[in-house]
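Record type: ASSEMBLY
Status: queued
Input:
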Amino acid sequence: MKIAWVVNGVVVAVLLVSLGTGTRSMVTSAARRLETGESLEATKKAAPVIAQKAEEPFCTPELKETLRRVLTNCGLIGGGRRGCQPNELRNVAQISDQDFNTLFKPLSHRAGIILFDPEKDDLDEGAKQLLDRLWADQRGASWFFVVARASTDDTAERNRVYSHRRANSVLFYLQERFKDPDLEQKVGLLWLGEEYAQLDASFCDWNLSRPVEECRIPERTRAQETLLAKRLNRSAVVSWIDCRL
Amino acid sequence: MSLRTTVFLVVALLGGGLGLFYSGSSTVDFTNHLDRQLHPVSCSLLAGLQESSLLDESAAGCKAALFSPYSSFWRDRYWGGIPWSLPAMGLFGFALALALWGLVTRRGHEVAVSVGLMTAGSVALISSAVFFSIAMGQLHTVCKTCVGTYISSVLLDLGAVLVFLSAWKDRKAAGDQADRPSVRASWIGSLVVLAELGLAVGVPFLVYRAALPDYQKYVTQCGTLKTTEDKRGVLLPLTSGDPAGKVPAVMVVDPQCPACAAFHQRLKESPWFDRLAIQIAPLPLDKDCNWMMTDSMHPGSCLLTQAMICAKDRAGEVLEWSFQHQKEFRPIDKADRPAQRIREALLARWPEWKGCLDTPETRIALTSTLNWAVDQSLPVLTPQLYIQGKRLCDEDTDLGLEYAMTHLLGTR
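Status: finished
Output:
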């Protein structure tokens, strides 16, 4: 009888030691992994992406450098006076007219061209709709550029005034329409008059606020070319810029 | 001891052994997760003997059981709580040892053995019945390893009852033989056996508790919001009640994300839900509107987020509705674009939003919402929960939820 209960004690002791050591081993093994951060190969996680502004492939170092210069000198970065005039811009951008336009070419799918009547700066319905659509499509962009121009119909001085007014028209419309308190920090205004980086026929493919008949003509005469250039340049190119500067 | 009692003891021994195997396997699965990482779960009647992987869909039932609040107790005191499989291990281990002792010493017909086996068998059977009803009624799924434990319980209880009846006959047949224990000795023997049962259940519990690391330092170190201010007014209320007196919280969700739906459900069922004033920060993982995504993880979620923006104070209602319809809104194949389907369903449910979806104002509001995530430098993943600006770690959104919530809310 006594022996039987001794055996019972031994069996129970073995059971308790096994349960205790087994439990301890399981928990301490997990605790060690917790402490060291050691993990199974299958469960190793890549560091999560952190939310940030957009940076599209077209944000080449050249484009960013030009944008940075323009933004700094035209008042968007670091405060100061808003907007840049043609003469200043030529110095600020430090690139030729052609190169300036080439830099913006990759934005064709993202940008729009707001067209104006001769000597006018008011926005028609098509222009407003296009602005609404483009402004609402901000996505991860930080800056909205308005690059206004004028055709060569008038004097350089008057054309400078026209392009300035056109840029302002766009800005005022956006302010009135969307009442965004941060809008001043987002919109960059450039007015080029007729003096710098005029648009050529290749911009016919961009989103235009109204149809331009001459764009549809495959073989244009010299007169038609001139007319097209005038129509395209009585404009403001507007676009969000998806670059982190 | 008769041959009959011997056979029945073997049945009880088998029940105890199998129960120890299955409850041990469940305990291993549970304790593996104490490192706050994801692990494969053995989910089979041959648990532990088969290769298991994280993506094993046949393990869904076991995962549901493991991560459910029913797999453990005292979750607010200890990270993950104390798994129920732990006392089960002790209980089955005890039954195994007692039956083995009865067989080896040929004393299986004694009252103490019958009392011990009957107690262990009854507790195992009642517990199994309770857990089975929870599985069917609450989890709506069956865990194969748990089924192994239920079968073991039935086997153990059957063996115990048969041993009890057979041993009674054995003792009656033995009459007043000299080596028959007195009534007093039988009582003492029974008490000793019950004390051993208590030890078998209690020792693993005490060891487990003592070996658990201090999780407090881990659960509060997963980041904070840069600011709890919402200058752009992008956060949407999850519930319509008065937030006064509640703890402010922000839940970053994607309406099409299954993990968000599951997390939201767990949170709703938790006792803390009513104490939190949760605001929703939508983060659609859909490249249609989210420039941070190179591919759409949850196509259509941009549109659902727009609907939440349109709903304003009723955004929580749209979120719940989206969670309920996730399966219907998921792409059928790679070419499927569910946005049109979602739009139709949304407008059928809330026709008044026809003039709100896709308007420039709504799209701008959606961009502002995403820019809130940029301003906060949030990780681009969902779900995330910030309580008083402190982030609930991803590792604590299932087993460690109650523990982490208790600490983030400062109630412990």
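Annotation: Strands of chain A lie at 112-115, 143-148, 187-191, 207-208, 235-241.
Annotation: The domain at 61-241 of chain A is CATH 3.30.1330.60 (60s Ribosomal Protein L30; Chain: A;).
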